[in-house]
Amino acid sequence: MIHLFFNALAASAGAGLTYVRNIIPEIAVRNDTRATIAVTPALRREFQEIINIAFIELEASGTARRFWLEQNKLPQIIRHAGADILVSTGNFALRNSPIPQILLSGNSLYTSADFYRDVKARRDYAAWADTYIKAVFAKRSVSWADMTVAPSRAFADVLHQWTSREIASVYHGFNKEQFLHDAIPLSADIQEKIDAAEGALKLLFVSHYNYYRNFETLLQAVPLFRDCISGRKVKLFLTCKLQSGQNPGSYRTKAVAELVQKLDISENVIELGAVSYRQLHHLYRAADIYVTPAYAETFAHPLVEAMASGLPIVASDIPVHREICADSAVFFERFSPEKLAEQVIAVASSPALMRELKWCGEKRSADFSWKEHVNKIVEMAEALHARTK
């Protein structure tokens, strides 16, 4: 029986947190794999009922502190655990891992020319420097690891071009039954906002505010399709608030909040704030179209969630979106509000196109499985262990 040590200390928000929350239950039910998982105390509390996984709680707030802890303290912990293979889930590998190491690399910002141009244009030089420094270590991490895995073929190709190393790809998963089963309703204030939009064309974008999700292009498109969809109001629901201190990270929200006022779309943009993952399915099912203008992605979990929920998708035309969505989306040039608006109007005005996208999406979402993801990671770990023992 192989013993895997998962370093999940970086799982604090977004895709990283979604990943760890989903793989832990899948690992727990396996009888051919032993697992030790390093997590923060806050995340450990979510898995009190799981007893057949060894959890190691480490307080690792802040990237610099976590990196220091990983490089200096974690090797000793791994040796003491007696594991066979280390799986580093947070983009950075151990430089001197005491055992063979699989690196899961999933941050597209480190390789995104669009992002570096964006933060410079915003004069957010702190974000530029922070990303550049992390990118240096992320690139070195690929050489420190025995194997690197990306969550899509498109991003694996980007990493290969960046590092000249061979990169494997394994899709992240999805569990439709688990995602849709929770009967806990949306909070009263969110449900009230949805009810107030009855009869309107309801668009949904699931993301906290950050630069690379390209909120500005989406907001600039709102008055364009609002004024072209006759006889019907348009409401864009955001799972964030465009206010300082209301989102993970240090992304500045002042300019985007001012943009909403400048475009006179306050009545059209509904800032719901963060919505619990267990309640998200209610929100997807209340919407008519899912839209994403992101210019950088590695997998994009909300796309799979939207497909499984029967939502047609309007997505920016980047390789990852085309790979994950396949025929379940229509695409637009990522920095063109006009093209985005055209596609929203095209979907909203064609019941036949909406039905086709929904059907393709529900079919495509079945291609993603957390069980299959874990199976492939375990297979890779076993092959690596056989080669190196």
Structural description of this entry:
- The protein starts with a strand and ends with a helix.
- The protein is of the alpha/beta class and 389 residues long.
- It is built from 17 helices and 13 strands.
- The model has no long low-confidence stretch (mean pLDDT 94).
- The protein folds into two domains: 2-173 and 369-388, Rossmann fold, CATH 3.40.50; 176-365, Glycogen Phosphorylase B (Rossmann fold, 3-Layer(aba) Sandwich).
- The longest helix is centred in the middle third of the chain and has 20 residues, at 125-144.
- α5 (113-121) packs antiparallel against α6 (125-144), α10 (215-226) packs parallel to α11 and α13 packs across α16.
- Strands 3-2-1-4-5-6-7 form a seven-stranded parallel beta sheet, sandwiched between helices. Strands 10-9-8-11-12-13 form a six-stranded parallel beta sheet, with helices on both faces.
- It is globular and about 70 Å long.
Q: Spans with pLDDT under 50 lasting ≥5 residues?
A: none
Helix content: 40-55%
Q: Any idea what the CATH architecture of the largest domain is?
A: 3-Layer(aba) Sandwich
Q: Indicate the proportion of strand residues.
A: 5-15%
The helix/strand series, from N terminus to C terminus, equals EHEHEHHEEHHEHEHHEHEHEHEHEHEHHH
Which shape, going by the Cα principal axes? Answer: globular
The named CATH superfamily of the largest domain: Glycogen Phosphorylase B
Number of strands: 13
What is the arithmetic mean of pLDDT? 94
Q: What gap, in angstroms, lies between the N and C termini?
A: 14 Å
Number of helical stretches of at least 4 residues: 17
- Specify the structural class: alpha/beta
| CATH level 3 topology of the largest domain | Rossmann fold
Number of individual domains = 2
Q: What summary fits the major beta sheet? A: 7 strands, parallel
Largest sheet strand order: 3-2-1-4-5-6-7
CATH class of the largest domain: Alpha Beta
